[in-house]
Specification:
The protein folds into two domains: 183 residues, no CATH class; 191 residues, no CATH class. Helix content is 52%, strand content 14%. Strands 1, 2, 3, 4, 5, 6, 7, 8, 9, 10 and 11 form an eleven-stranded mixed β-sheet that branches. It is elongated, with a radius of gyration of 37 Å.
């Protein structure tokens, strides 16, 4: 036996095993599987925030698409002329021949007018009390009003050259609903005369004042309702490329002596302003959804902190078996991200479904911007990572002995 030689001692070094991505996901989802109710409740806050944001953006996009289609159908080249005020503040009436003067403007393709009959009231019958007129106005209307404004009939036909001299009336959509009339041929009591309903209009986008009005022929208004023939509103449809130029010359054309006493407006501008207001309101709702999302992130962070306190022994056991701090940190960070992603995905689906149902109910085209879904889910992942970062670091700092001892 050779005792002069030293027996080599083989020292082995324990090298922590690296976790594969599949193992990381499995370990990270363990907490969610063990406590599913808590996970669902925590994800609910994230889901509500994302659902609110996606629904608001989707409903706004669908509404905007419907608005653009509606605006394209009626056009943006309609201008209106109404009386302004004189130097003492009284209403300055438009000249009798205003419509013909507007028609002489080269780029104007068509023009038509209405005249307000303030002394004429509309009733379903002659037995209705005088004060119960329902707020329906009476207007004398030119024959070219439908083609100029873009009116569409819900029932019957518009006034023709023969009817405008006789007691025939066309009702706006709101006026017909107020009077309870849904078919033509019905007679109504208008200005102490019986008028026959020959048509009912569809709701008018660019001229909503016509919806609550009863429109009679220009000549009939003069002979039967003491109309003076002065228009109170003129509608002019111009060439698209010349709208601004026509707008600039309308006032001096209608009233060359006092152009400042004429008001010119563009109805589509009011719709655009309404659209801008809706966009601002949409931004406010998105902000509220963002606040809900942050609150959900706080809930995720709280859930992760509680999970670490409850699973100290698990953390200590894993550390004692060779798990590194980085692996512990990754485990809880992945769990937090998965929890947030669960809420984000379910919230995105819920928001899209609710907004699609609402758009279909309104008769709009369903428009779900892909970027809204992408940003929503991405935001939840980012919030989950941020919310779980500190709890994950805290879990990684636990010493094995302290964790196993439950300290």
């Amino acid at each position: 036996m050779n005792t002069g030689r030293l027996t080599p001692v083989l020292a082995t070094r324990l090298v922590p095993r690296r976790l594969s991505p599949a193992d990381t996901l499995r370990v990270g989802s363990a907490g969610l599987r063990v406590r599913p109710t808590r996970a669902l409740l925590s994800a609910l806050g994230i889901a509500i925030g994302i659902a609110a944001m996606v629904a608001v953006v989707t409903i706004s996009s669908s509404s905007q698409a419907a608005f653009n289609a509606q605006l394209a159908s009626v056009g943006t080249n309609l201008l209106t002329v109404t009386p302004g005020q004189d130097f003492i503040g009284n209403s300055a009436p438009l000249p009798v021949d205003s419509v013909h003067m507007v028609e002489r403007i080269g780029p104007v393709k068509s023009a038509a007018a209405t005249g307000s009959l303030t002394n004429a009231k509309v009733y379903r019958s002659d037995h209705i009390p005088v004060e119960a007129s329902g707020g329906i106005g009476v207007l004398a209307a030119g024959l070219g009003l439908p083609s100029t404004v873009g009116l569409k009939m819900a029932a019957g036909t518009w006034l023709n050259a023969a009817q405008e001299r006789y007691p025939a009336v066309v009702l706006g959509a709101t006026a017909a609903r107020t009077l309870g009339i849904d078919r033509i041929g019905t007679q109504i009591w208008l200005g102490n005369h019986w008028f026959t309903v020959t048509g009912i209009l569809q709701p008018t986008v660019l001229a909503p004042e016509l919806d609550a009005s009863a429109l009679v022929g220009w000549d009939a208004a003069k002979t039967m309702l003491s109309f003076d023939g002065r228009p109170t509103e003129i509608y002019a449809r111009s060439t698209d490329s010349q709208v601004v130029q026509v707008s600039n010359v309308l006032a001096p054309t209608v009233n060359p002596q006092n152009p400042s006493q004429v008001k010119v407006s563009r109805p589509s501008d009011a719709l655009s302003a309404k659209k801008a207001a809706n966009n601002a309101f949409t931004g406010l709702l998105v902000g509220i959804g963002g606040i809900a999302l942050l609150v959900g992130g706080v809930g995720v962070a709280n859930t992760m902190v509680i999970a670490i306190l409850e699973r100290r022994s698990e953390i200590g056991l894993r550390r004692a078996l060779g798990a590194t701090r980085a692996q512990i940190r990754t485990q809880f960070l992945v769990e937090s991200v998965m929890l947030s992603a669960l809420g984000g995905a379910s919230g995105a689906v819920l928001g899209a479904a609710v907004s699609a149902a609402y758009a279909i109910h309104q008769g709009w085209q369903v428009v779900i911007p892909p970027w809204a879904l992408g940003i929503g889910v991405s935001a939840t992942i980012a919030i989950g990572a941020f919310a779980g970062l500190w709890p994950a670091i805290r879990a990684a700092r636990l010493a094995p002995r302290e964790a196993l001892a439950g300290q």
